[in-house]
């Protein structure tokens, strides 16, 4: 009897903990009394930054995704360490645009003026992402809040945990499934490639070395698009040269990404495969035909991104500065 009671208590404790880690601690009115104008303050900072450079939009969205995939949505990707072995220092992260980091740092500064010491950098990043999406024509959605900032940021945790541009659908599913994303989530989230840039090196093999065959071009490319890309990205191209992920509406968050895939205008293997693989093709066709359906699915999926491994006061903190832990570690 005594032992059984012990088991019961352990089970109850486990339930309590698991409900925290799945993000049930989050709520949309979390800062209602401590920082009532939070969303406005963050969106104003994002707007200001977009006015300086449109790269802000994709940079913030991508930063949010990368941060959440590694140790959860806890702003661990923002940590800068003198030892240069934080998440942001990983080779996978090399291409995260500095403007994403800068946006969060600036928004935090404004938030601290209005409501000092209460709002996490993780929540500011989640809000900034939703502002960037809305300001570029995407869906408006309510952001669940109450995340704490993480206490762990390690480059070594990144490798192998982010999807790669050459992944086929099985590999993409493997990475997303680990975090509980469905195939519809995966396809909807990939729609974030409706904005932003991509460096030539990420798809050069599709143009010049398809399947390891020198001179071969991926036949799933639209030939006209492949020719345009060869001009923008010649074989001797510099490492800083990048092209738009969505060649038609690169700074508008719309469903053209999906019509592009149908026409062979997907830039990365991981983009085009969503159409060429018959398992995901119907979802691509659905989103290409119906932007509302894409937006609805995207809002569900980005909500899941934001609730990955949420930290609490027990395993996180409210950082004073987004790029460093409060206490020296
Ligand atoms: C499905 C698997 C994914 C793969 C393989 C992938 C890969 C990539 C690659 C290789 C780039 C180009 C980076 C560069 O050369 O600078 C990129 C850019 C980008 N990705 Fe993804 N990504 C994926 C999913 C996502 C998701 C889920 C999001 C957000 C919800 C996202 C948001 C972005 C954005 C906004 C950019 C443009 C960044 C910029 O212009 O600064 N990606 N992605
Ligand atoms: C946008 O930038 C211009 C100068 O480039 C400036 O005059 C204007 O006030 C800015 N708008 C906002 C909302 O910051
Ligand atoms: C598009 O999707 C929305 C949301 O799922 C749905 O309500 C609407 O009926 C769809 N429109 C068409 C034309 O199928
Ligand atoms: C934006 C940013 O901080 N990028 C960093 C990613 O990692 C490399 C090192 O691998 C750094 O040099 C970059 O500054």
From TrEMBL:
Keywords assigned: Calcium, Disulfide bond, Heme, Hydrogen peroxide, Iron, Metal-binding, Oxidoreductase, Peroxidase, Pyrrolidone carboxylic acid, Secreted, Signal
Q: Which SUPFAM superfamilies match?
A: Heme-dependent peroxidases
Q: Which GO terms describe its biological process?
A: hydrogen peroxide catabolic process; response to oxidative stress
Main location per UniProt?
Answer: secreted
EC number of the protein: 1.11.1.7
Q: Which CDD domains does the record associate with it? A: secretory_peroxidase
The family line of this record is:
Belongs to the peroxidase family. Classical plant (class III) peroxidase subfamily. Belongs to the peroxidase family. Ascorbate peroxidase subfamily.
Q: What is this protein called?
A: Peroxidase
